[in-house]
Amino acid sequence: MKLEAQDPRNTTSTCIATVVGLTGARLRLRLDGSDNKNDFWRLVDSAEIQPIGNCEKNGGMLQPPLGFRLNASSWPMFLLKTLNGAEMAPIRIFHKEPPSPPHNYFKMGMKLEAVDRKNPHFICPATIGEVRGSEVLVTFDGWRGAFDYWCRFDSRDIFPVGWCSLTGDNLQPPGTK
């Protein structure tokens, strides 16, 4: 299915994307005119994905993705060919992103499930390693610190324990180091 998505490498651009994978509540997306090296994941209720036509309806213009493989002057024709006869994701399947919690309730040592940002197709068991204001340090259970990262407490890459089981996503086993 085709939809509009924010280019994760150029967040001011809205592009055409194709759903190339689905796992649980996450979509694997590929920007049309890009290659599979730049695929990215979004939750099905992400504000960064919209139905085809949303950009134009709001006065914007669809852009070629960063690294568009063809000459930029061929973009309008490419866009026309890409959308002609394509299966568009229907408006009814798009849902509003839930509101952020008002406060950071995380405490050091709490368990969670988190996207491995170096391998974003994986969701792994993790622990809150530190809390600083609105930021939390995500540490992956059984792995060295090279995979740890800081994020806001309301990041869409962190989930409560049991989220993968609830959504049908695969939870990776903890590491052994």
TrEMBL record:
Ranges of the MBT repeats in the UniProt entry: 1-65, 73-174
Keywords from the named record: Nucleus, Repeat, Repressor, Transcription, Transcription regulation
GO biological-process terms attached to the record: negative regulation of DNA-templated transcription
GO MF: chromatin binding; histone binding
Range of residues in the leader sequence: none
Cellular component GO terms held in the UniProt record: nucleus
Keyword hit for Repressor: yes
Subcellular location: Nucleus
Domain of life assignment: Eukaryota
Main subcellular location: nucleus
Transcription regulation listed as a keyword: yes
PANTHER family: POLYCOMB GROUP PROTEIN, POLYCOMB PROTEIN SCMH1
Family designation: Belongs to the SCM family.
UniProt name for this protein: Polycomb protein SCMH1
Record organism: Galemys pyrenaicus (Iberian desman)
